[in-house]
Amino acid sequence: MSSPRPEPGRRRAGVLTAALALLVLPLAPVPAAAGADSLERGPGRHLVAYYDFAHPLPGDPSRERDLGRSGTVLTLVNGGERMRVRDRERGLVLETRQLTPAERGNDDWKAGLYGPQGVPSLHAFNAARAATVMGWFKTVGENPGLNSNSADPADRYGAVGLAGVLSGTSQGHDVRALLELITVDGVLKVVALGRRVDGGRSQTFAADADWRQVLPPGRWVHLAATFDFDTGAMALYRNGSPLTGSAVLTGDPWGVVGPPEPDTASASDPRGIKIGGSYPQNTREGNPCSCRMDDLMFLDRALTPGGIRARYRSTR
């Protein structure tokens, strides 16, 4: 990790100089924050949503502006502006966490948005041929958390949510493209998890290494996941370099073999974004992450290894 970055708003010179009660995205997107135009040029035109957690929505610090092209505003669920914390290495970042693991409830700190009829500003992921989810992550507490939905006080969640785009029929948990930690054959792994068809089967690409090797507790790591809905290919990257891994399911769970071509995601607007756990509409706690996050990006293409490396270097 490089030396501490300058104060927010100046820390990306050359890259950046932005319906369930309050937790559902308004139908009209908010214009991107000033200085985001540079992200629209070249490969940046695929940057649908980007959050650096240094751009609160004017008049409502419990919400975060989008620096990508879509203007999709996030809600900082349960913790509001307290979830924007100052990290000595990266300045202002998002903190997510589980608050009362011994109690059944939905008070975990997470971020996202949810639209039960789909979120129009995320239309770029409607019938998309590919997607990329990436960002900086640091675990700062116990993961996975105790399962607050279980009667067994020792039971723990089988996954830790990082960041993802919901499917078009999601109940707040099912995704189209997701970065997370999940148990594979009894071992927690860093994975890319994707679903091409709403209500259809998902596929998981799991890194070979134990998650603590990929994401050492207390250390900032850049993770990226790419999803090609046409070919079925998925990939994971750590600090700009590919991670070795494999698909968990055999066969063709996405149904990409055979006509018609090309294969795309379902022709539906995603129901939102989830960050640091599931159910951004705050109806349930699920897979909470005791983490800090920064520079989260959601793109409607599968970036090449060179593209991933460039994004990693530009946000260090």
Give the helix/strand layout.
Elements lengths: L46 E5 L4 E2 L2 E5 L9 E4 L6 E4 L3 E6 L13 E5 L15 E10 L19 E8 L8 E10 L2 E9 L6 E6 L3 H4 L6 E8 L5 E5 L2 E2 L2 E3 L24 E4 L15 E9 L5 H10 L2
Antiparallel strand pairs: 1-18, 2-3, 3-4, 4-7, 5-6, 6-18, 7-17, 8-13, 8-18, 9-10, 9-17, 10-11, 11-12, 12-16, 13-14, 14-15
Describe, in plain words, how this protein is organized in 3D.
- This protein has helices at residues 211-214, 305-314, and strands at 47-51, 56-57, 60-64, 74-77, 84-87, 91-96, 110-114, 130-139, 159-166, 175-184, 187-195, 202-207, 221-228, 234-238, 241-242, 245-247, 272-275, 291-299.
- With 316 residues, the chain is mostly beta strands.
- A hairpin with a 5-residue loop joins strand 13 and strand 14.
- The strands form two sheets. A ten-stranded antiparallel β-sheet has the order 2-3-4-7-17-9-10-11-12-16, with no helix packed on it. Strands 1, 5, 6, 8, 13, 14, 15 and 18 form an eight-stranded antiparallel β-sheet that branches.
- It contains two helices and 18 strands.
